[in-house]
Amino acid sequence: MKVLGLTGSIGMGKSTAAAMLRRLGVPVHDADATVHRLMGQGGAAVTAVAAAFPGVVTDGAVDRRELGRRVFGRPAELKRLEAILHPLVRRAETAFLKRHRRYGTKLVVLDIPLLFETGGERRCDRVAVVSCPAFLQAQRVLRRPGMSAERLAAILAQQTPDVEKRRRADFVLRSGVGRVPVLRALKRIVTVMRS
Ligand SMILES: CC(C)(COP(=O)(O)OP(=O)(O)OC[C@H]1O[C@@H](n2cnc3c(N)ncnc32)[C@H](O)[C@@H]1O)[C@@H](O)C(=O)NCCC(=O)NCCS
Ligand SMILES: Nc1ncnc2c1ncn2[C@@H]1O[C@H](COP(=O)(O)OP(=O)(O)OP(=O)(O)O)[C@@H](O)[C@H]1O
């Protein structure tokens, strides 16, 4: 089985590329979605997060926007949160890989925003990075509710710079010129990696 890592800085178009890969029939493990599930009602991380960040849990689920306010821009707090979540995300990923090895799946995707930051590329045969010019990235992200220029700057400060991600990538998917070129590039990558 081949493993394609998919990553990209905030707002670059990673989730859009992941959705295209799913439509092409490739199973995708989404680290962000796993994090959100772990912190949703009844999620395995809720108790530990509530203990480390008092007041962020309401109705049995973590208020992610409030938690984000507490951790983005505060590296020590973010580290504390990551120490709770990353082992649980990794466990879910391991189960996903094991399941697909058993099924005989030829190609799977690991969609991980912090792929390079956490050494995840070592678990991948190839890595694709989604990228677009910084002004477009900012335009896209600032449209989101609850997002501000300060929050964006704090998040970007915690991420490997786009230029380094591109340097380390096997494939760069350029999302600044529309969806069609990204889909075309993904089809090529999937064909090569499945064969
Ligand atoms: C702080 C949290 C609650 C904010 O949740 P929210 O739903 O508001 O935002 P979302 O998860 O969509 O993230 C927004 C952007 O921040 C980026 N981001 C998230 N966590 C991190 C991090 N630890 N370091 C750098 N960037 C991050 C994401 O890639 C995304 O681009 C959440 O991001 C979180 O729990 N992060 C820590 C866990 C983590 O490291 N996740 C990354 C995947 S393993
Ligand atoms: N190839 C593309 N062409 C045009 N617009 C795109 C493309 N890819 C993504 N977009 C747009 O950019 C925005 C961000 O895309 P997306 O949510 O996929 O980013 P992301 O990298 O997953 O973000 P995050 O890391 O914050 O979760 C969305 O509004 C999406 O519609």
State the domain count: 2
Coarse shape = globular
CATH superfamily of the largest domain: P-loop containing nucleotide triphosphate hydrolases
CATH class of the largest domain: Alpha Beta
- What structural category arises from helix and sheet content? alpha/beta
Distance between the termini: 11 Å
At the fold tier of CATH, the topology name of the largest domain is: Rossmann fold
Radius of gyration: 17 Å
Main β-sheet description: 5 strands, parallel
Spatial order of the strands in the main sheet? Answer: 2-5-1-6-7
Catalytic activity: 3'-dephospho-CoA + ATP = ADP + CoA + H(+)
InterPro entries: Depp_CoAkinase, P-loop_NTPase
GO biological process, one term: coenzyme A biosynthetic process
GO molecular function, one term: dephospho-CoA kinase activity
SSE blueprint and pairings:
Layout: E1 2-7, H1 14-23, E2 28-30, H2 31-39, H3 46-52, E3 57-58, E4 61-62, H4 64-71, H5 75-103, E5 107-111, E6 126-131, H6 134-142, H7 149-157, H8 162-168, E7 171-174, H9 179-194
Parallel strand pairs: 1-5, 1-6, 2-5, 6-7
Antiparallel strand pairs: 3-4
The protein binds dephospho coenzyme A and adenosine-5'-triphosphate (ATP).
The site of dephospho coenzyme A has 19 residues, from helix 2, helix 4 and helix 5.
Keywords: ATP-binding, Coenzyme A biosynthesis, Cytoplasm, Kinase, Nucleotide-binding, Transferase
InterPro entries: Depp_CoAkinase, P-loop_NTPase
Organism: Magnetospirillum aberrantis SpK
